[in-house]
Amino acid sequence: MSGLGWKNLIFRGLILGAVVVGVAGCYASALEEDFGRSVRNNMAQQIINPQAALDTRPTTGLPPDTAVNLYEKYEKSFKPEEKKPFISITTGGGSGGSQ
């Protein structure tokens, strides 16, 4: 194949790559589509019950054992992982030579 054919192929590949990157840049992700929903939800809850912040009763819902387990797991998530020792077990293997 002549040099002109390869140059044309490379040029078309570059153009196709630029088009793909351009289209991907315009794609709306799921995060963008959902952006602001939590704020709107909180505002709606404040409109429904504006006095909710004044309620001093403790929230309920988790059994004490579950709450303790969740808290311990949360605390462990901040500690660095312990490095486990690497143990290599090899089984006998000879050189296979004959005597």
Low-confidence stretches: none
The gross shape turns out to be: flat
Q: What's the total number of strands?
A: 0
pLDDT average, as an integer? 81
End-to-end gap: 60 Å
Strand content: under 5%
> Helices and strands: which structural class?
mainly alpha
Helical fraction equals: 40-55%
Quaternary structure state of the chains depicted: single chain
Number of helices: 4
Radius of gyration: 31 Å
Tell me about the biggest sheet? none
SSE order, as H and E?
HHHH
Describe the structure.
This protein is an all-alpha fold and 99 residues long. The chain has helices spanning 3-25, 30-34, 37-48, 64-76. It is flat.
Key features of this structure:
single chain, 99 residues, mainly alpha, 4 helices, 54% helix
In a nutshell, what does this entry contain?
The protein contains 4 helices and no strands. The chain is an all-alpha fold and 99 residues long.
Q: Secondary-structure blueprint of this entry?
A:
Elements: H1 3-25, H2 30-34, H3 37-48, H4 64-76
